Amino acid sequence: MKKLLRIFAMTGLLAGWLCGMAGAVSAATVDAVEYYHVASNHYLITANPAEVSFMDASPAWRRSGASFKVWPTAADAPNGAVATCLFTAPSIGNDVRFYSVDQGECSFLASFDLAVYGGLQFYAMPTTNGACSDDMQPIRRGFFNNGQGSINFRYTTTLSASQDSLDRGWGDNGIALCVPGSSTARRADIHRFLRQATFGPTDALVTRVEQMGINSWLQEQFNAPKSTYPDLPYVAFNRPDTCTGTCARDNYSLFPVQIRFLQNAMTGQDQLRQRVAFALSQIVVTSGIEVNHAYGMSRYQQILLDHAFGNYRDVLFHTTLSPAMGRFLDMANSNKPDVARGISANENFARELLQLFSVGLYEMNQDGTLKLDAGGNPIATYSQTDVENFARVFTGWTYPPVGGGTAVRNNGVNYESPMQAVESNHDTNAKTLLGGVVVPGGRTALQDINTALDNIFNHPNIAPFVSRQLIQKLVGGSPSPAYVGRVSAAFNNNGFFTRGDLRAVVQAVLLDPEARGDLKATATYGHLIEPILLVTQLMRGLGATTDGVYESGQLGSMAQTIFTSPSVFNFYPPDRKLPATGSIAPEFAILNSSTIFARANFINNVVMGNPIAPNTTVTGAVGTSINWVPWQSLAADPALLVDRLAWTFTAGSLSDSARNIIITAVNAVAATDTLTRAKTAAYLVLNSSQTQVER
Amino acid sequence: MKHSPMILKRRAFLQSAGALAGVSALGTFDSLGISRALAQSAPVSDYKALVCIFLFGGNDGGNLVVPRDTAAYNLYSTARGGTANGGIAIDQSALVAINPKSLTAGYGLHPQFAPMKSVWDAGKLAVLCNVGPLVEPLTKSEYSQGAKDRPEQLFSHSDQQTQWQAAISDQAARTGWGGRLADVIGAQNGSNTMPMIASIAGSSFFTIGNTPKVVSVPSTGSFGLSGFTTSSASTSRMNALRELLLLNSSNEFVREADDIFAQAIDASNVLNPIITGNTASLNSLFPTPATGLSNQLLQVARLINARNTIGLKRQIFFVSLGGFDTHAGQVNTQDGLFAQLAPAIKAFYDATVQMGVADQVTSFTLSDFGRTLKFASGGGSDHAWGNHHLIMGGAVKGGDFYGRFPDYTLGGPDDVSTNGRWLPTTSVDQYAATLARWLGVSASDLPLVLPNIGRFSSNNLGFMA
What we know:
The complex is a heterodimer of chains A (about 700) and B (about 475).
Chain A: H1 2-22, E1 30-37, E2 42-46, H2 49-56, E3 61-70, E4 82-89, E5 93-100, H3 103-110, E6 116-124, E7 136-145, E8 151-156, H4 159-167, E9 171-180, H5 183-197, H6 203-212, H7 214-222, H8 245-251, H9 255-267, H10 271-281, H11 294-306, H12 312-320, H13 323-328, H14 348-358, H15 384-393, E10 397-398, E11 420-421, E12 431-432, E13 438-439, H16 445-457, H17 462-474, H18 481-492, H19 502-511, E14 527-528, H20 531-542, E15 544-546, H21 549-554, H22 593-608, E16 624-626, H23 629-632, H24 638-650, H25 656-667, H26 674-687, H27 689-692, E17 693-694
Antiparallel strand pairs in A: 1-2, 1-3, 4-5, 4-6, 7-8, 7-9, 10-11, 12-13, 14-17, 15-16
Chain B: H1 6-24, H2 31-40, E1 48-55, E2 65-67, H3 70-79, E3 96-98, E4 107-109, H4 117-121, E5 125-132, H5 140-145, H6 157-166, H7 177-185, E6 197-199, E7 214-216, H8 232-245, H9 252-275, H10 280-283, H11 292-305, H12 307-310, E8 314-321, H13 330-354, E9 361-367, E10 387-393, E11 400-403, E12 426-427, H14 428-439, H15 446-449
């Protein structure tokens, strides 16, 4: 705390220092920088450059990452701007800082014995009717008092920061100041939006969204021409001995589907559709662990592309009858129980459909929080008996006969078209579903499936269950209950009384205030980007040309081989928490010392290395290459180079200290070696955790 | 490439406050207890290691260990639908015959375990029968009447995997028992900053403790950053990368990623020369062609072989084999998996003998759950509960069964359904406690690792010498 006393001693000098500046040519604005003190959970802002240096050197404090622009002098400020009065309260706490442009507030504070006047500080505009004009940025003042001597003020620039304060017990004073609005806020929002809605921002996309606005761009995406997966022919289940090398690769592995996924992600116009389909592929999971024939996985992923903006009920129906799912979760050839031989219906698909694809383990409120019983315990959504009943619903389905026709018995694996019912293998006894709904006996296999999917689809859990996961996969890991609730509402009703409309759900996810807005500076906002997105964001952001062959092969060591999760539980669980803080952080489940090297070394190979030559055994191969010329043209000015990269890859969230470290490293490369300068900057920006954690 | 261990030390210092906060947030654990344990765990001089082999998907223990006497075998075989027409019983004559020391009945291991017969005969392999997650001791009537708490979400893969790895079944756990074990006895390694836990199978819940102390090493290939030279530009780039990792961002996710990266760089400086060095005499013990699991266990053997270089005295390793969720086509699938498992663990045992540490290394299996004894449509079995597991090592009192072998009657006294889902008679807590005690946790500190152990009558099942 002694250091803080020194801060205040310096503060007294501030007015004089600013007066000294007045005659000099000064910048139009200076940064008011926010600092955070972990032990006390207190904040402090200052716009005094000398104090900024002092605070940067103070070990107990660190920059929160938030800052806003203010006018240092009256000469810089527009008409109507007012010098802020500063009051401190050293006897309460050395980090109490009350800034105001309201003369009434200033006089009021002056009447308190404990308040010490700190002089006039930076200039800001007062509010009009509690609001700032459109070209100004509103700064909210939060107030903390735990009644035990811990008192603090905080000045927040974003709704999410303010919400974060409220969540942690702060009071809200409303908008206290209006400061120069920055075009960076909108720019940051657009870059962040494109990280959420596409496989990575490109200059062209940023320009397009800047011109159209986010909303119009979304409508354009809903109508963009659809990407496709290769339409591959049936192959026998067992690889013939004569099929080796490229034949094995192109038919008996997912290779053709994986590289098409990356090619679509690189150049497809339907970026949002692909992102949603990719998210669905991680909810309604099938995996190359078991479905390793390209023609099978290709058809399965096409279902998800086709229905990405459709209805979730259709997603459930078409994936349920997909032979890929049938094989992955053993619904194919699961026949009615054979009492005489003691065989029961296969429970695998029934269980995972309920647990992972639709309603989840526990009953939820519409905001995704758990319902609790009278004893305070969560309430199971379904029982083992329910699973056994659903298992009987899903009996009687088999693969379509090879070459067409109608199935009459259990067939071998064929992924060409949806599974077919063999009614004699279907359990026609009555079944009891969720909520006690009874399927009467004697129905067909298809009737039973539709009744069961309706039963699931109308369960109240499905809206929060699906909404929360789509938020996590598009925007980030730990949405607030209010956010989940807003998206659930869109799931329940798209505005035209339709339930499950994914177009409405996706819009609600991406337009929510928690996803949109200025730089997100709170300590708890953000999520690690998964390996596939790291790869595509790198490629698209740097302007690479690639056929996906090399990249597809590198993803395994990062623990995310495309369409090949280790099990139906996806690559990482949606509820994984950071051990230290308990925050939800799903993608961290696959970040460890091995995979972090794999990520770094992938960046090294494509950025620092030479172009990767085309694999001549792949039709249309172009290899992987980056056009460095545009980046080299910036290399004479390392700051400009790093700033451009930081916009592309961090949506403007790269901290000043990280920026300076990278600029220093770029300056260490001879100015004449523009290629190494560009590569060095890209390597460091991409390897920074500030890039890999999307904010 | 050469680094000082600076990054880690600086990080460890920065994290000390966060680590303490994590401990006190545990609720059921007493933070004073943790600090007492840390204070009392003095550095030790001997070497001991645990190797956890996780069989992902839920291994069918019913076909790992089979009753061999005719009446008992027939009961088993009937429940499993015999050996033909989609039945999943193992042929009686194909079993690897074993006779547990303390039992009169004869049993058999799955035929693919023939390589392990000599280890069983030497008394270095034990079977723990019908073990599984329990909140507290539970009888079938208590289960049926709902008279006592049962584990959350029985029969669900994700929940049961977590419970086996957490050894906590009555609430959502944030840490695994391997991680907590390292929290409590970490001080026995003195000031060594190398993580006490090494996973050769990527991230796992088992290894998560309250402070980051796990290193994930690939099963093959090198382990470190590539692309750096001694040129000044390259050196500047490396220095910049290290500075970036030290920024101590206010964002918790950025900080976490930085920590993992920094710890990886420090660990690779020590471990990469070891795993890329010449280990021909160990390599020769392992099967060719290598399998995923044999490569993982060979990597463990290399790390144990370099124990003096690494300097850790207590280590925990995690390896895994997946694919055990045999809802259909079980006979062939499990046969193929056991054909990888048995030779790999036999080679690993032989490696510990060659290195002279057989008595100091104990390997054990975990898995999601057991499977229904009754077979399911498609020639498989469904998710169940209690399961049989293996413990291997020179310090194991092997050649014997521990726990109680269940009654195989469908709907019988050990079956909570009519499909052969056994109610465990031994808890995961007790299984873990017996191993934790052997590795060096005192009886009084055991609740810090296994908070519910006090609910069970014994914290030592007796299978460790």
